[in-house]
Amino acid sequence: MKKLILNFSFLFLFISSAFPQWTWQNPKPQGNYLLDVEFVNATIGWAVGQHGTIMKTEDGGETWAVKTSGVSEISGIPSYTRIQFLNEQVGFITGTNGKVLKTTNGGLTWETKTVASGFNPFSDIFFLNESIGWVCGQSGRIFKTIDGGETWNLQPTGVTTSLFTLYFVDQNLGFCAGFQGVYLKTTDGGATWVQNQTAFIGSINRLLFTSSDVGYAAGEYSRIYKTTDGGATWQFQTLGSGNPISSLLKISNSEVIATGLTQIYKTTNSGTTWNPISPYNPTIYTDLSQLSNGSFVAVGGGGGIFKTTDAGLTWTTKTPGVGIRIYAMAFSSGETGVAVGHKGEIRRISNGGTDWTQVEFPSTKSLNSVAFSTNSDVWAVGDSGIIIHSTDAGVSWQSITTPVVSPLNCIYFIDSQNGWIAGRNQTVLKTTNGGQSWEAQTVGTFGTNFNSVSFSNFSSGWLAGENNAIYYTSDGGSTWNFKTIVNAPFGNSMSAIKAFNDSTAIVSSGSIYKTKNRGLTWSVFQGGNAHNDLYFIDQNTGWAVGGVGQVAKTVDGGETWAFLTRGTSNDLHTVCATTTNKVWIAGEFANILYSGSGGITSVSPESEISPKQWNFYPNPGQDKINIVCDGLPREVAIFDAHGKEIKAILETDKEINIAGLPSGVYLLQIELPSGQRSVKRFIK
Q1: Are residues 543 and 618 in the same domain?
Q2: CA–CA distance from 186 to each of 126, 130, 172, 214 (Å)?
Q3: Mean predicted confidence (pLDDT) in 188-194
Q4: Which one of 50, 72, 225, 257 has the lowest number of neighbouring Cβ atoms within 10 Å?
Q5: Torsional sign, CA 110, 115, 119, 124
């Protein structure tokens, strides 16, 4: 089934009070974004990233193991944005939890150092030595420690926009930059910071100085800025085609490497010219570190890790990183699974194994849904009316010729002979002979687009689609009747539907809706952001998945839902189970995760603050969102999919204009009149 695709990259959010018990099956060892990498020497290196990810290598980046900090996060699993080791034993990590982790034994154990109370996401950390260091982050905050992180003092900056990067030349001279080109300089260790006017356009992601006078700034729109007068003036060059430059690495005073999203560049003449040292790659690079002369490791999207030993002439992939998104999964009773997705992606796992193998098929048409009709017969449908069939449980595939050209979004078999396919432009097909032939059924009006189909028996079935389209049949599809969910927002896209019996069905959208009387009335239940797919193993136990890795579970037929700990913050598009315990979830970057406990580890609140204290609507929103709380919020902030602050346009004290935002996932943070801060996510 084709799902709503959400743009997501470095979204920073708080998820659960316990570390998740989802096992990565693809890619391995894990697929969360890596945001920073640091090598201590030629063999030992560390990488950190989204969803509390910490990884370590002890063989020069050839193999990597996932590590945990061992620290309990009351407010949830953070994204770690930066790691810095001063030597093999002493290292620091910071991130969106507003804390600093410190190790003094080479990462065997980590200790939490609280910087300040409240919600203070940090973007960067910079230590000059084992005693003196700084962190910077949201709302213009910079903190300094002179005792190795035991205590921290807030330094006045005079700005309130988010700060993304810090660099100190010595204990006095330092620089800081961030959102929308804000740029600060200190000459007294941060006791005072002076805001300087620059030619920066857009945000600055990383600063690097090779001397007190010469420095570089990595920015948006592929811009590299350089100063030769201690930051008083800056000149820029444009590298690539507009993607942000995310990091900078000093090799020598004249040699610097810049990491862009899709390419890595190097200068050997102090920034006069820059040349690519990596092939163009759709994989997203975020950071790079040097192991030894000519040897580098780059990290990035989807857990990607790449290495060169010849100064960038050739690169080897250590973990694959960004993969093609998966839209749907299905399993046979023998626990052979098939996953399908974008551009003809097909993956297969057999007999309850742990490794998914890629299956070659000569088509780049996206496959949107998959279903088993027997333990060996499996079907997949997709764009341009493609239908493919396997008689050996997904090992090999053949195309089925039909006159349909509209995209097909879903397929469902009630037994080995009877099945239905639905898609765009009123397309509904039925087979009664195991797929040997398919007959068109008439449903709805022209332009009706269906996302999901489900039958409880040969006669009773449902269709769900865009613009609140829900149809019910009691005669196997010969006739279909439109059903209205009165309290559903106008224009909702119904992404998944499950038929329980002749009368009962459940459908997911921005919320979860259930009927017990063939659609005459519907009850609405909160499903959070878990609305891309539904799967029920029986009439009581089911799961829902959605954007930013959200997983919800019900054990009472959808009446109530618990938010589960997550293994990722990447978007999920599909969920499938073979028992009440064995569950798979999949989505962006070809991520596939497995739980042998039904996904249960702990229930996760959306926020430290009770939802009764504040809320907002609508979600998803198009033009405006409205805040509901007692009194007036002290502060309102919006963060984009890169974790960067976006100016909140307030129409009134509680009404925010989001019409100018691109489609995607965002975080809405408010400070309540009580002084408490809370974050909720919304979709535009």
Answers
A1: no
A2: 14, 21, 7, 16
A3: 97
A4: 72
A5: negative
| Percent of the chain residues past pLDDT 90, beyond the cut | 67
Summarize pLDDT for 446-470 with one digit per residue, the tens: 678 999 999 999 999 999 999 899 9
Residue 68 lies in a domain: yes
Residue 430 to residue 418: CA distance in whole angstroms: 7
Query: Is residue 626 assigned to a domain?
Result: yes
- Whether 169 maps to a domain, the answer reads yes
Distance CA 420, CA 440 (A): 10
What lies within 8 Å, CB to CB, of 280 at 6+ separation is 262, 263
Instruction: Kindly state whether residues 435 and 516 are assigned to the same domain.
Output: yes
116 in the same domain as 67: yes
Calculate the alpha carbon distances from 75 to 69, 121, 169, 604 in Å: 15, 12, 34, 10
- Domain edge (last residue) among 244, 276, 300: 244
- Quote the pTM value: 0.82
What strand order describes the sheet that includes 183-186? Answer: 163-168, 174-178, 183-186, 194-195
**ω into residue 618 within 30 of 0, thus cis?**
yes
Nearest of 191, 186, 151 to residue 170 by alpha carbon = 186
Structural domains of the chain, count = 3
Residue 388 DSSP symbol: E
Is residue 38 one of the residues assigned to a domain?
A: yes
CB 277, CB 311: distance < 8 Å: yes
Tokens of 358: 């890629």
pLDDT band at residue 675 using 50, 70 and 90 as cut-offs: low
- Top-ranked range on mean pLDDT: pick from 260-264, 311-315, 392-396: 392-396
Beta partners for 137? 122
Task: Give the CATH number for residue 109.
Answer: 2.130.10.10
pLDDT digit string (tens) for 313-332? 999 999 887 778 999 999 99
The reply to whether 570 and 639 lie within a common domain is: no
Q: What is the 3-state secondary structure (H, E, C) of 573-615?
A: EEEEECCCCCEEEEEHHHCEEEECCCCCCCECCCCCCCCCCEE
User: Domain boundary at 595, 623, 644, which?
Assistant: 595
pLDDT digits (tens, 9 = 90+) for 453-512: 999 999 999 999 998 999 999 999 999 999 999 878 877 889 999 999 999 999 998 789
Domain of residue 457, residue span: 326-595
Following CA atoms 90, 289, 39, 25 in sequence, which dihedral angle do they give, to the nearest 10 degrees?
110
Number of Cα atoms under 13 Å in the Cβ half of residue 105: 5
